[in-house]
DNA sequence: CGGTATCCACATGGATACTG
DNA sequence: CAGTATCCATGTGGATACCG
C-alpha cells in the first residue's frame, strides 16, 4: 500500500479525532503554551492571552476534565488557585513545539521568542521531525501508511 | 530564567498564534490527515470525514489560501479537481504525527491504524519527541525557555 | 483572586436542495 | 464532480457586571 495510493477507508482507528476533542479548540493550544511558560493563575493567563473570562473559565475546566491540567490551591497562599501541567499535559510538548516551529518557518519567517533550549548548553533544540525506530531522520518520501494487519501478516511469513 | 519561573510577558513573538490561524479549526487537522492518506477529491474527503459540504468547501478554500493545499485539475480527467499537499503542507507531518501519537498514548490507549512506517523496513516510526541540537533525546526537565537577547548577550561574553 | 451570570455578535456546523 | 445557496441550531467569543 503506497503512500500516494488513496486508502479506500481510512481513519477507522485513528486517534487524531480523539486528540482533537481535547485540543482542537482555538484557545487550547495558547492556554497550554501559557502553562508551559510557567503561568499558573487565572488572572495571569487571562491578561496574557486577552481571552474573555468566561471562555477561559470554560477552557480551563475542560483541560482539567481531560487531565491535561491540574487544579490545586496554591501552596504559598491557599486562597489562590494554581493550574499545573499534568504528565499528560507535558506530553503535548512535542506537538506544540512542532507546530510552533512550523509557524516560524512558514508563517512568521522568524524565530520565536523566548526560545526553547537545552538547559545543559543553552542551545536551541533541534527541529522536531519524524525518525525511524533506529534513529534515522525520515523525509516524507521515506514514509508510508500501512494497515497493522498487513504488517503482522507479513511478519508472520 | 528557569522553566518554572513565570515569564513576566510572553508570546510577544511566538509563531504559535499564527500557526493556529491556519490550522486551529476543528476540521483542518482531519482534512490534512485525509490529504496525507492520499485522498484528493472533494467527494472522497466529504464522504470519508462526514463533514458538511459547505464547511468542507470553506475549509479547503482556506487551506489553499494559506498554501497548505494546492488545487489543480486532475491530470487524468481535467473535469475533476484535485487537492494536493504543498511542501508547506507536508511540513505539518511532524505536528500531526505527534498529536496522533499523543492521542494513542493518552486518549484511545491503543495504536492507530493505518500505521506510519519507514518504507525501507516497514517498521513503525519512532515517537516524535524533542531532541537537542546534537541529537540527545530531551525530557521536560532538561528544557528551559530563554530570551533570545539574553542568549546572545551570554554568547558575546 | 477566581470565578459566574448575562447579553449579544458572529462563526461554525449540519441538512438539504440546487447548479454548471 | 465540485461545489453554491439557503436555512437553522448551536458553539465560540467578547464585554461587562457581579460575587464569595
TrEMBL record, chains A, B:
InterPro entries hit by this protein: HTH_HxlR, WH-like_DNA-bd_sf, WH_DNA-bd_sf
UniProt GO MF annotations: DNA binding
Keywords linked to the UniProt accession: DNA-binding, Transcription, Transcription regulation
Acetylation recorded as keyword: no
Domain HTH hxlR-type: 14-111
Annotated TM spans: none
Pfam family, one: HxlR
Superkingdom of origin: Bacteria
Protein name (Swiss-Prot/TrEMBL): Putative HxlR family transcriptional regulator
Amino acid at each position: 500500500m503506497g503512500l500516494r495510493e488513496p486508502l479506500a477507508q481510512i481513519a477507522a482507528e485513528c486517534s487524531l479525532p480523539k486528540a482533537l476533542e481535547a485540543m482542537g479548540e482555538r484557545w487550547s493550544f495558547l492556554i497550554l503554551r501559557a502553562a508551559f511558560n510557567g503561568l499558573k493563575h487565572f488572572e495571569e493567563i487571562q491578561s496574557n492571552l486577552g481571552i474573555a473570562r468566561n471562555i477561559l473559565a470554560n477552557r480551563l475546566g475542560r483541560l482539567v476534565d481531560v487531565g491535561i491540567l491540574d487544579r490545586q490551591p496554591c501552596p504559598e497562599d491557599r486562597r489562590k488557585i494554581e493550574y499545573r501541567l499534568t504528565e499528560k499535559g507535558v506530553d503535548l510538548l512535542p506537538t506544540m513545539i512542532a507546530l510552533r516551529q512550523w509557524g516560524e518557518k512558514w508563517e512568521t519567517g522568524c524565530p520565536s521568542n523566548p526560545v526553547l533550549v537545552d538547559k545543559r548548553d543553552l542551545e536551541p533544540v533541534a527541529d522536531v521531525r519524524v525518525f525511524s525506530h533506529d534513529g534515522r531522520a525520515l523525509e516524507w518520501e521515506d514514509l508510508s501508511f500501512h494497515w497493522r494487519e498487513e504488517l503482522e501478516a507479513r511478519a508472520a511469513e
